[in-house]
Structure formats: C-alpha cells, structure tokens
Amino acid sequence: MADLQQLELDAVARIGAAADLSALEGLRVEFLGKQGSVSALLKTLGGMSPDERQSQGPLINGLRQSVSDAITARKAALEAAELEAKLAGETIDLTLPAPDSARGSVHPVSQVMDELAEIFADMGFAVATGPEIEDDWRNFTALNIPETHPARAMHDTFYFPDEKRAGPAAGPGEGGRMLLRTHTSPVQIRTMTAQEPPIRIIAPGRVYRSDSDATHTPMFHQIEGLVIDKGINLGHLKWTLETFLRAFFERDDVVLRLRPSYFPFTEPSVEVDVGYTVIKGKRVIGGSEGWMEVLGSGMVNRKVIEACGLDPDEWQGFAFGTGVDRLAMLKYGMDDLRAFFDGDIRWLRHYGFAALDVPTLSGGVGA
Ligand code: 2NL
C-alpha cells in the first residue's frame, strides 16, 4: 500500500519534470509500456486471491490512471510551450521600413504588348480578346484551313479528348472538337460574326502549339490585326504595317520588303521583311543590308468573309499576324526564347521594365 503510494508520487514527479516530448515518451514506455512497471503490477492481479484482488485492484488501477493522467497533462503543456516558442520565432515586425525601391519588374512580353496596344490605338484599332479554349470551326474551318492541313494534325494542335464532339463542325455554334487555340485568329472570327463592319481590331494573347526547342515553346504570344471595310486594298496594308514598325522600332529609316506567300486565310498573302544594318557585328533595324522576316499578312480571303456571314463583294479587308515574343527579342536583344518562361529572377531583373518605364532601344536587335 505504502509502496504503491511512493511509486505514484515518484512517477508523477518525474513525469511533471520531463523536459521534452521524447523524454515524456520514454517515461510512458517505462511505466505503461508492455514491459512497464505499472503494467507488471497490473499483471499480478491475475495470481491473487479474490479478497486480495478486491483490495489491490482499485489501488493498482488508480495508480495506472494517475500515471496516465499525468502523462496527458504534461504532453499538453509541452505541446503548448512548443507552439508558443514557434509563434514567438515567427513574429513579423510590421513597423519595419518598406524596401528602398520596388522589387518587381514588368516582363518584356507585357511591355511589348502594352507598346503594341498603344501604337495601334493611335491608328484607331481596338483591342479584342477571346477564350484560349476554342472550337474546331473558329480555329480552323472558318479560316479556310482544310481538313487535311498539317496544322490540324495531332502533333501540332492540342486537342481535348471528347468523344461526343469528335469531328469538325460545319458552322459556328455547332460544336466540333475543342482545342487550345493555335493562333488568335478565332478572336477575329468572333468579332466578325458578332459585329457589323467597319472593323479595326488587334487580337493579342496566348496561343498553343505542340512544339518545343530553342526557338519554339508550347505556349507563346501572338498578335494579329484585322481591318474590314469598303474598298480596302494592299496599299492600306502596307501603310499600316510600315507605320506600325517605324513606331515600334522607334526609327524612321525602317524599310519593308513584301514577298508573295501563301496562307489559306488570305489571298493574296504577303510575308513582310524589315531591313537591317550591321553595326559592330550587331544587326540594327533600319537600312537594307539584310532582311529579317517579321510578319505574315494579306488580304482576307473571300471565303473567310463569307464564312462569317458577310458579303465579300461589299466588304474587304486585310489581316496580319506575328509573334510577340519574337518582336520582344528583336527589339530588346534577347536570344533564348525559353528564358522568357523560366521565371528566373535574375533574367527578370536584367530584362524587366520599371512599372512606368518609357521604352527605349537599349538592347539593340539580336540575330
Ligand atoms: C503568321 C501569319 C497571319 C492572319 C495571320 C487572319 C485572320 C483572319 C482572317 C485572315 Cl480572321 N487572316 N490572320 C493573316 C495572315 C497572316 O499570321 O506568320 N503568324 C505568326
């Protein structure tokens, strides 16, 4: 009897003094574990006479309960202290001063997008946007891209798996396979089917193609432009692109070269090169020592105008398209497209722009 009381006093005192959770666990094993001292006492009940068991049972069970309660209490106290220490260590001093200068910067793609929107706004173009998940009809069919065109192949286009909608659609709103848009042209298709001409829009945004190497990323940024009005001709196209490229590269000596080309959605189609001059081994836009391709364009194909429900004898137009990432590389002198999307803070610090920066030709133009 006196032994059990002494045992309880000692055990509760040692538990109350356990320094941490692992020391406490050691004590739990020592008293209540399979080979524990309290457990051993409980086992002796089996060998006792009924009278003995009647008197000893409540005492030994009482001891087990006190030890168990002491462990639970100590555990709660140690955990509370641990949390308290952690919170104390994580205190944020809100009275600290703000950083001397802003830490973030504007990504070159955002900078160039803003420049493009501003230049075209000055020429009377509105900015149009649309969904990145499109249907087969708006991305391909309405643009006179045939069923057999290589761009439609699985290895170029990211299609969504959807058996119910399998196959192309014949008209707008008829469903058809869903896909990640491969260009921003479906935005122009949406504009032409939703509003009356005259139309003057640019459509900037993300586009997706199943392609990946030093000069291609599966997602990139495109900008397209569209004008639909009466009596539009190639002269309007050339003036618009020349005015745009001179403003963008901030030089009056930008020279354009128009080469005949082919796109299903334009007829005739023209590829646009800008001239460059080599200064100290670097290509600088302006002059005509060499040529770099910067845009694809042409007069909107009659079939595209018809597909959008307009009369091609009444309405004509021109369209163009180019890569925003590529324009940024040319203007600001980056050479690896993949770095655009790595999110490396050092690259962003080097090439990023201050929030209200005025664009300059600092980087020159790369290859
Ligand atoms: C390129 C060429 C181009 C267009 C895009 C277009 C859109 C409509 C109708 C007709 Cl709705 N054309 N867009 C036209 C010519 C070229 O892009 O090389 N892009 C990277």
Q: C-alpha Rg, in Å?
A: 37 Å
Distance between the termini: 95 Å
CATH architecture of the largest domain: 2-Layer Sandwich
- Kindly state the percentage of residues in helix: 25-40%
Counting helices, strands and paired strands, the structural category is alpha+beta
Tally of extended strands?
A: 10
* CATH homologous superfamily heading of the largest domain: Bira Bifunctional Protein, Domain 2
Query: What is the number of independent domains?
Result: 2
The helix-strand sequence is: HHHHHEEHEHEEHEEEEHEHH
Characterize the overall form. elongated
CATH domain topology of the largest domain: BirA Bifunctional Protein, domain 2
Write a structural description.
The protein has 367 residues and is an alpha+beta fold. It folds into two domains: 2-89; 108-351, Bira Bifunctional Protein, Domain 2 (BirA Bifunctional Protein, domain 2), CATH 3.30.930.10. Helix content is 39%, strand content 20%. It has eleven helices and ten strands. It has helices at residues 2-16, 21-32, 37-44, 50-89, 108-122, 136-139, 185-194, 234-249, 302-307, 324-332, 345-351, and strands at residues 126-127, 133-135, 178-180, 199-208, 219-229, 256-263, 266-279, 282-285, 290-300, 316-323. The strands form two sheets. Strands 1, 4, 5, 6, 7, 8, 9 and 10 form an eight-stranded mixed beta sheet that branches. Strands 2-3 form a two-stranded antiparallel sheet. A hairpin with a 2-residue loop joins β7 (266-279) and β8. α1 runs parallel beside α4. The chain is elongated. Residues 361-367 have low confidence and may be disordered. It binds 2-{3-[(4-chloropyridin-2-yl)amino]phenoxy}-N-methylacetamide (2NL).
